[in-house]
């Protein structure tokens, strides 16, 4: 599975914290049923079906298989890609607003994950697994920005490739990379 560039309608759909959490879960954990996703994002399975149907209709998730669970047929869903992207250089105001709102929703989701995990960590784990925040506010050339975007994608894909495929002890982490323009004040002469 490769990346998928979101269109404006898909981007607007991803503004929902619930839908963003479903997609995050499926990307992180792989295919899962609504009954497996629901407790992880603190929702009832019944409430989740509406969002799954919207994601499926938009082409962001798809049924992978069905299985029999306690005399009921259950659908297992998967994401259509292992990461999503969007070209923020568009001049369409609707697309720009959708992009900004989706980024805000995704950052909020990361903060929620951090807050929930922080409450459950032991003091020892808290020291070992503390949230790492690195920031840099610098001026970069267009070429440097393009290279940074490529590196960010490499980091995401590398992080995904490090997930153990066996029973090796591991800690689930969230990597959120945000490259954002900073408006500079222009001096008036």
Task: State the fourth-level CATH superfamily of the domain at 3-134.
Answer: Winged helix-like DNA-binding domain superfamily/Winged helix DNA-binding domain
Structural class: alpha+beta
Approximately what portion of the residues adopt beta-strand conformation?
5-15%
State the end-to-end distance. 53 Å
Identify the notable features of this structure and list them briefly.
three-stranded antiparallel beta sheet; alpha+beta; 189 residues; globular; Arc Repressor Mutant, subunit A
Task: Describe it.
The structure is a single chain. This protein has 189 residues and is an alpha+beta fold. The chain has a domain at 3-134: Arc Repressor Mutant, subunit A, CATH 1.10.10. Helices cover 48% and strands 13% of the residues. The chain has a 3-stranded antiparallel sheet. Strand 3 (61-69) and strand 4 form a beta hairpin. The longest helix has 28 residues, at 93-120.
SSE diagram, text form:
Elements: E1 3-5, H1 8-13, H2 17-29, E2 32-33, H3 34-37, H4 45-57, E3 61-69, E4 72-79, E5 83-85, H5 93-120, H6 123-128, H7 142-161
Task: Summarize this structure briefly.
The chain is α+β, with helices and mostly antiparallel strands and 189 residues long. It has seven helices and five strands, in the order βααβααβββααα.
């Amino acid at each position: 599975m490769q990346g998928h560039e979101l269109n404006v309608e898909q981007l607007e759909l991803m503004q929902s914290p619930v839908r963003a959490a479903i997609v995050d879960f499926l990307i992180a954990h792989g295919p899962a049923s609504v009954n497996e996703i629901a407790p992880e994002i603190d929702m009832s399975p019944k409430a989740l079906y509406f969002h799954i149907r919207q994601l499926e209709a938009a082409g962001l998730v798809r049924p992978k298989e069905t299985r029999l669970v306690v005399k009921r047929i259950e659908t297992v869903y998967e994401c259509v890609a292992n990461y999503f992207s969007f070209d923020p250089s568009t001049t369409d105001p609707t697309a720009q607003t959708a992009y900004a709102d989706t980024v805000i929703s995704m950052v909020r989701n990361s903060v929620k994950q951090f807050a929930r995990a922080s409450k459950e960590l032991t003091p020892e784990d808290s020291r070992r697994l503390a949230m790492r925040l690195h920031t840099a506010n610098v001026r970069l050339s267009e070429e440097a920005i393009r290279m940074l975007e490529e590196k960010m994608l490499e980091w995401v894909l590398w992080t995904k490739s490090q997930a153990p495929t066996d029973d090796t002890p591991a800690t689930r982490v969230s990597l959120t990379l945000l490259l954002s323009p900073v408006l500079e004040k222009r001096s008036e002469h």
